[in-house]
User: Fold these one by one.
Assistant:
Number 1:
Amino acid sequence: MTGKPGLPLAGLPLTGLKVVELGHYIAGPFATRLLADLGAEVIKVEPPDGDPIRGWGSRHNGHPVWFSIHGRNKLSVTLDLKSEQGRARMRGLVARADALVENFRPGFLERIGLGPAVLHGINPRLVIARVSGFGQDGPYRDKPAFGSIGEAMGGLRHLTATPGVTDHPPPRCGVSISDDLAGMYAALAVTAACWDIKGNPEAKGRIIDVDLVGAVFSLMEGMLPEYGLTGAVRQPAGSAILTAAPTNTYLCADGKWLCIGGNSDPIFKRLCDAIGNPAMGADPRFADNRGRCAHMAEIDAAIGRWTRTLPAAKAEAVLEAADIPCSRLYDMRDCAEDPHFRARQTVMEVQDPLIGPLLHPAAPFRFDGISPPDMVRWTGPALGAHNDQVFKDLLGETQDG
């Protein structure tokens, strides 16, 4: 890690951008984490008892491990937005900011006197990103939602069901994917809106509306136009996908799973040779992707018979030698210890002053001349760690409120 909290790393593209986070739990703070990793100054405004996410997951030395990532590169301040002093300080933060990201239920900011009209009265160029379950309008606007609801209503959870199994609920993917998606979209939209304003002194701030359901729904590929034209509703396909073959996950002799993508014409022929079945590669029924999709079960059965004869690592090595896209299903131990993850510093060790040596995931983008560890200027801070720095140094307060 490099740098002092509050000082950006030279060379990051969003250095100089000032962002206020009024987020809690995942979606809003995920958006600002991306912006902070890109160099923005992010001031995370927390209630006096902290973002509830500080209570999630494991703890070490009394400190939440997840928050080391969740709050990294951010300045933490505490404000009671229900008090006049808290709102006054919030107005001061807004006056110097380029953007604000919030993910409260629609109408909350208006109820406490900090709605967009008030905020734009303070700073007409402010970009305001509002992240919510269902959006700022529509009949479901006021309904509560968490990430699982975004998956359910956005269409994803329907697709994760096991075909033919009706007595078990479709599984979730194991992380709050709809929160993360909405956060990514919010970060992209904030960057775009700030770019639109940059260099134009007459430009006004925009209001960005991102919702969890819409973020998931945006990933549904061609399913909506297919339904609109024919009434077809795509059904769960398990570990396969109906539009390409073979691409599936196959059980190996040691009980582990191997994901194989053999869904281009030349790769399919190499795959058939590698598993000792060149006749399948020469079968005219399987000459193109359309034909292979029509005979998916037959092809998958043949590949599965081969994978069950070998341990997953051995089968992976055979296919890699033939230049076939494949991978064992990694758990976190596999990720943390993989030499490629380590060589690219996708997995990196940082020094967290609250926790000690800790593994962090790198930011999902690279910039020449800047190493992934250098992008972590500091880890998630203690609650209110930067109150004095922000209120006195940045806002110019001369005494405690």
Number 2:
Amino acid sequence: MIDAIDLDLGGAPQDHRVVVAMSGGVDSSVVAALAARAGYDVVGVTLQLYDHGAATHRKGACCAGQDIIDAREVAQRIGIPHYVLDYETRFRDAVIDRFAASYAAGETPIPCVDCNQRIKFADLLSTARDLGAAVLVTGHYVSTRRLPDGRRGLFRARDEDRDQSYFLYATTQTQLDLLRFPLGDLSKADTRAIARAIGLPVAEKHDSQDICFVPQGRYSDVVERLKPEAAEPGDIVHLDGRVLGRHAGIMRFTVGQRRGLGLAGGLAAGEPLYVVALDAARRRVVVGPREALAARRIVLREVNWLGDGTLEAAMAAGQDVHVKVRSTRPPQRAVLAHGPEGAEVRLADGEEGIAPGQACVFYDSPGGGARVLGGGVICRTELAKPTLSPAVA
């Protein structure tokens, strides 16, 4: 068990001010405590990202009212200054509005990626520099290490079950050079053990589960309020063109979904059905057999490259990578290439249920500790066996 950390800043720790992003959870609290014990000039910052008054009594959401109280108590316990910054307007514009718009477009977004990219590692990092900090430190389970060319590389956590690199692929190189993630080599059990040893009041606090701004986990309430067109009813259509039923809004569906279709248990003539596409323009949910979910090619947008050289050179060479298309799936072999529509990934073995709006993250190898080479937003996929009838396409 470690009792201090080295943030790789050179010189004496007391010569460096660092800002720690404190969510009120055990991970960021331990990071703040270890940085303070190491002698760094630590400033704790907690972000108020939405109307936390409505969430004070809701468990399982970060950055809510109780979390701010917990972060303040930890800061007092370890003897560091603590500030709460009101980022509600920025968060609404950069995260919540984009979340709703993505669902209305028939996608399945990941708001945590936008929050990290556009708020925590952009606005908060800028604030940290304004405070005279050398780096911004967080409790994410990833690592950065200095590369031979002097840059810092982003690496998966050694504990693959805790790894959060999927949500951080959009971090830019400039941001990476100013970020530190001290928990990348620890397990969650290690972190809690440190919290207990230090006597932190959040040592046994449960992890966040919900999307922080979604009350009771009902994301459809948020989407319907901001994008009511996403709740408009439409047809459920089979790949062969048959209209099988009606739905109450495409925002309630995601590619790969089987339950909740409202089609006699998801069956049509004895055939198990899955959502294979969402047609937002025509308000249609397209369903079909499981084999229709298999995809070999993924078209990407908003690609962020963290590998060596340039993205263009990597695509031109057809660089071998391992990719994750969902946070819970293991990396799979693929090739990063330049296709007719721009950046694309060609999967060696195919994947099922790849949803537009999710991330496709590139790694140099499949295991824990692998280097993150970047990633992009899934724009669309090409099915391994095209099955769309002219009536549906």
